[in-house]
Amino acid sequence: METKSTQEVAPSVVLTSNLVLEHWQGHRRLTRRVIELFPEEELFTYSVGGMRPFAQLAMEMIAMAVPGVSGALTGTWQYFDESDFGKADPKTKEELLQLWDKTTGIIDELWPQIPEARFQEVDLAFGQYEMPIHAVIYYFIDNEIHHRGQGYVYLRTLGIEPPGFWLRD
Amino acid sequence: METKSTQEVAPSVVLTSNLVLEHWQGHRRLTRRVIELFPEEELFTYSVGGMRPFAQLAMEMIAMAVPGVSGALTGTWQYFDESDFGKADPKTKEELLQLWDKTTGIIDELWPQIPEARFQEVDLAFGQYEMPIHAVIYYFIDNEIHHRGQGYVYLRTLGIEPPGFWLRD
């Protein structure tokens, strides 16, 4: 069985669990830079084309991250509850960054506990999205890249140079 | 050796080669919808915050895709040459979409030929970017999501509703 498994799966491995975590946290470090670059007021109020201010987009990322990793780990999917973090919706850039960093730590703590075979299992994420766990995780990552790209436009229209897309440290 | 390999790699597999191809082509189908939604003129001329029009962003994606997959396959990295496609820079939406679809077909043809162990090899992509092949490939995918997110802002400011981010068919 193990030999069969090696032939079927191992030869075409593109990403292992550790590599996905590293990839995501690299993106999250870049998103953190974008949050930092926004002026305090514009972070919470500035909009282009009627879209949400960047703080709201960042809160959407935060709202998906820990509940998503927790759901991947436990099979129990619960939307973000601010009380989990012991504070209300961030009102300042500093509070948002603290919430971001707290999220980073919890992801790092939970991720390695995700059972080995779990990524290929199909689950009903948040009682609504039926897909393999790898697709759930990549939805979070891709959604973050997507909204961060919108933040780049916000910054440009504010006359602020966004960070290089390749920066992940 | 095979048993050892199974224990070390297979248990934490998140994405196999086929899944990555499917993931990317799903994103490429969404990007194609965004190209289609732009009015003909605005596709080539409309800009927000001094950024490039969406046709130029789409051409950057095209310029990376086939040369990148070809480099992953062969180890030879050559930037896109319009003559490879037998036509000059697209001047109409229809020409751009034709180039997009041609790219789709070539990716589908080349991808399954990428040697099994290749994704973990470090290479000097385009003589400039030293990283494992999986990181090169994800750079293309992430760059596309990033710029497409910017295209969503362009569409919104033009009063056009972008496609749902979850649409990949």
TrEMBL record, chains A, B:
Record keyword ATP-binding present: no
Q: Which UniProt keywords apply?
A: Metal-binding
Q: Which residues bind a divalent metal cation?
A: H147
Instruction: Give GO terms: molecular function aspect only.
Output: metal ion binding
Q: SUPFAM superfamilies annotated for this entry?
A: DinB/YfiT-like putative metalloenzymes
Read off the InterPro entries from this record.
DinB (IPR007837), DinB/YfiT-like (IPR034660)
Q: Which family does it belong to?
A: Belongs to the DinB family.
Q: What is this protein called?
A: Putative damage-inducible protein DinB
Query: Taxonomy-wise, where does this protein's organism fall, top ranks first?
Result: Bacteria, Pseudomonadati, Bacteroidota, Cytophagia, Cytophagales
